[in-house]
Amino acid sequence: MKSIKDINDLKLNLDNYVSYSIRESLGIIILSFSEDEITIGAMNPNYVKVLEFITKLESEIKIKVKTKQISSDEWEQKNINQDKPIQLNTDSNNQTQNEDSNLISEALTQSNNDKFDFFDSEDEVELDPEDIFDDSEFKEVSDPVIAAVSSILSASNKLGASDIHAEPLEERMRIRYRVDGVLQEVYSLPKARSRAITSRIKVMSKLDIAERRLPQDGRLRYKIDEKILDFRVSTLPGKWGEKIVLRVLQSDTSLLKLDKLINFDVELKSVRDMGNSPYGIFIVVGPTGSGKSTSLYSILNERNTPDVNIITVEDPVEYTLDGIHQVQVIREKGLDFARALRSLMRQDPDIILVGETRDKETAHTAMEAALTGHMVFTTLHANDTSTAITRLAEMEVPPYLIGSSIVGVMAQRLVRKVCTRCSFVSQVDPIKDKLAFEHGITEIRKANTINIPNNKNNLSNLNNEKLCPVCNGSGYKGRLGLYEVMKINENIRELIMKSGNADEIKDCAIKTGMRTLLNYGLELVKQQLTSLEEVERVCLLEESE
């Protein structure tokens, strides 16, 4: 049995080993210790640096070290008081005492005007051994930070959001969701708790909680109602703290049907013909969040048969399809698109999907693969189909290589669908609806949008009965795709070989039957599926006077 002097020496050694800088960088704290055992609390016990520290501590002090997961609120309170004398346990079998903190709950309840809502208690989550956060296993969790983050993540599923923005401002932290392509503020949290919320999300994403000056990227998985949600996490330092954006990665393969995406038979047939080509390269262009990955996976889903070897290289892997080998890009390990593409060429592929062609090396390798008997699908940053061709030329891909390998290009955008419940049909006004009038459209469907006042105090004056239960007053529900499909024919191929500009290529494609994004959108307006305002917004047109 160790003497009191030995125990005091142990305490002094612990003070040196577990200094404030160590506690801050690793997110750990000393919970208790005796002559036989030390208990360390960690926000992320599986963090590699924490495990390394525990191993080193055991070897230096020669005492067994246990770890216990603690909340960010627990860590914050204990870390503040860590320099106070530590109470020694004379009985090694004593259990670690848990301290319940009400700091966050008090902060949340003090603000009556906050729009924060915990939803249901079933949304509370905790880390599990498989790195999937399952809300159903932790219904009794009382930590308000865990509950808050859980509700924030769960709301994305309830709202059908594609992105979550958690952004600290000067006096509050706002939580916004991108629903049908438009950002909406849903929660307003106390500024004092923004750091705890940020730390919790970073712990779940296996990010370095001590690093607040550099951007970080991570990923987390969250399970609710037997549905697993995947999130891509990005942090960005700012004046008032770190902003976190979580992209919801869709994994519902039931959506991957071309006939559900493309409304018109002409474009649908062209895409299928090009997708079924035995070799060549098919390019999809469009801005971020325009559904490019969904379109490509829909094509792959139709080609996914046992006799076809399909390999993808992505960053990140958004859909999981049975029978397809999917490679995740890991840039910090040197595995970028170009290197992965070179390696998979030795895997005897029939079809290759390159998540994004962003550099000269990737473009050249993809083109060469298309010429050697492989079918290649990829995405590219460009405004429309014709500029995609010139974009490849800017990457120093020779015109002969482009012309001989490319089979087609598809540009796409997403527009919101007008709500089927509250929208109304109106006669076209030749002045206000000039664009529709010029294209021979006589009737259009308009969204019944209710402008909710920004002043919180006026929200109570709004009669909720006026809000449509389907679209909640936005006038829109769901989205549709606009598609511009250019199938490469001999005339277009000749222009590419001669280094023709984008306008020449576009004019040639239109003459051979290509429908532009604008014309595709106007056809949707004619069918009363979307509004004229949406088409004008997405196609970057000025509103008609």
Textual characterization of the structure:
With 545 residues, the protein is of the alpha/beta class. Helix 13 (385-394) runs antiparallel to helix 17 (502-511). It is built from 19 helices and 19 strands. It has helices spanning 4-17, 20-26, 48-61, 72-80, 103-110, 144-159, 194-204, 258-261, 265-275, 292-303, 337-344, 360-371, 385-394, 399-405, 434-438, 490-497, 502-511, 517-526, 532-538; strands at 28-33, 37-42, 64-69, 132-134, 161-168, 172-179, 182-190, 216-224, 227-236, 243-249, 280-285, 310-314, 325-328, 351-354, 375-380, 406-418, 424-427, 443-446, 476-487. Residues 1-5, 83-130 and 453-463 have low confidence and may be disordered. Strands 4-8-9-10-5-6-7 form a seven-stranded mixed beta sheet, with helices on one face. It folds into three domains: 4-101, no CATH class; 105-249, Beta-Lactamase (2-Layer Sandwich), CATH 3.30.450.90; 253-416 and 479-538, P-loop containing nucleotide triphosphate hydrolases (Rossmann fold).
